[in-house]
Amino acid sequence: MKVTLKSSLMTWSGSDFVLSKLETVRKEALHGYNKVTVLPSEELDDAYKEVGILNGYRVNYSFSQVIISLFKVNNETVNFWTHIVPAVYFAWKLAFLYSSQPLLSDPYWIPLSCYLFSCMAYPLASALAHAFSCMSPFSSHLCFFLDYSTLSFYSWGAAVFYYSYCFPESALHTYYSYSYLPISALNSVLSTFLACSSRLKKQSRFATTFRLGSFVVPYIWVSSPLVYRLLTCDPITDSCAESSYFHVSQFVLVLAASFFYATHIPERFLPGYFDFIGHSHNLLHVFGISATYQQMCGGLIDLSFRKTRLLGMGWTVDPLWTWLATPLVIVSTLVIIFCSTRIMDDVRPFTCHSNQALRPSLSHTNSAKKCH
Ligand SMILES: [Zn+2]
């Protein structure tokens, strides 16, 4: 006699209770799904409008509405998925390498764990920021403070990565190499401070450029040894012949990501056409995370090919840079985030309606009046 899961469940004494609970959850989910709606930009305060995005905004969502909204079309859906999937990939990569290599015990491999952790952290924080920033104006600022801080932390992870595996041989054991990591750590903390500061000011083109600059300057410093090595390396003795394709691709992809972030193209020229997919922030995510992937591929080639040569030259990075400096960078950025939230004295409401009881569940069809 064929025994199905349903028939087995029905014979269990607690089945009525479980089935009634499941039915309640199903009804609440359906009800919540229908309640999750979005607003047009004309109902939003200027501080929360994005250039060229006319519809699909989520405001004042509850936690369950946020979760449901991730599976419905709005102007953050693609932003969320383009970073949560890569975050899972980098977590898997970290776990996979941990199971096959001495990531936490061999001084040569330890910097890789710091780097991969930062590669996982920044898209994860970004995805969560894009998901939950709609819960309140305060959460919006807090989420993006965390987003900026993990991006700055990633610059530190990349610095440790380059220092350990991609540094030019001619620069080993020089003042440049001795100052590289301390300045990178300082840059990481400073960039969090500057990016958070840009959000405390009124959102404008200047604020966007200022924020972009706070990430570009550390990026240039962190990348400087790799650029120098690619320009001067000997492909016969160095692994640059194998890894340069990935490193150069990474630079091109970062340039593309920065271009779209700074210009708001294509939605600037065709407002409303890219509200849900294809706008500049989607492109920033796709190009940015692709750059990180290329960076990892190039660095892993260098790690593998240069090991004997680097160790022979006495180039083993002190594990303290990972185990001590990394937590210090993290704590410093958390302190900056805490201070930033304390001095936010002008958190403007999402919408121009004075009554903030407005919930997305309410129809907005009657309130299409211009706010500003
Ligand atoms: Zn983003």
Automatic annotation (TrEMBL):
<protein>
    <submittedName>
        <fullName>Membrane progestin receptor gamma-B-like</fullName>
    </submittedName>
</protein>
<comment type="similarity">
    <text>Belongs to the ADIPOR family.</text>
</comment>
<keyword id="KW-1133">Transmembrane helix</keyword>
<dbReference type="GO" id="GO:0016020">
    <property type="term" value="C:membrane"/>
</dbReference>
<feature type="transmembrane region" description="Helical">
    <location>
        <begin position="209"/>
        <end position="231"/>
    </location>
</feature>
<feature type="transmembrane region" description="Helical">
    <location>
        <begin position="243"/>
        <end position="262"/>
    </location>
</feature>
<feature type="transmembrane region" description="Helical">
    <location>
        <begin position="177"/>
        <end position="197"/>
    </location>
</feature>
<feature type="transmembrane region" description="Helical">
    <location>
        <begin position="321"/>
        <end position="339"/>
    </location>
</feature>
<keyword id="KW-0472">Membrane</keyword>
<keyword id="KW-0862">Zinc</keyword>
<dbReference type="InterPro" id="IPR004254">
    <property type="entry name" value="AdipoR/HlyIII-related"/>
</dbReference>
<feature type="transmembrane region" description="Helical">
    <location>
        <begin position="108"/>
        <end position="132"/>
    </location>
</feature>
<dbReference type="Pfam" id="PF03006">
    <property type="entry name" value="HlyIII"/>
</dbReference>
<dbReference type="GO" id="GO:0038023">
    <property type="term" value="F:signaling receptor activity"/>
</dbReference>
<feature type="transmembrane region" description="Helical">
    <location>
        <begin position="283"/>
        <end position="301"/>
    </location>
</feature>
<feature type="transmembrane region" description="Helical">
    <location>
        <begin position="78"/>
        <end position="96"/>
    </location>
</feature>
<feature type="binding site">
    <location>
        <position position="285"/>
    </location>
    <ligand>
        <name>Zn(2+)</name>
    </ligand>
</feature>
<keyword id="KW-0479">Metal-binding</keyword>
<feature type="binding site">
    <location>
        <position position="281"/>
    </location>
    <ligand>
        <name>Zn(2+)</name>
    </ligand>
</feature>
<dbReference type="GO" id="GO:0046872">
    <property type="term" value="F:metal ion binding"/>
</dbReference>
<feature type="transmembrane region" description="Helical">
    <location>
        <begin position="144"/>
        <end position="165"/>
    </location>
</feature>
<keyword id="KW-0812">Transmembrane</keyword>
<feature type="binding site">
    <location>
        <position position="130"/>
    </location>
    <ligand>
        <name>Zn(2+)</name>
    </ligand>
</feature>
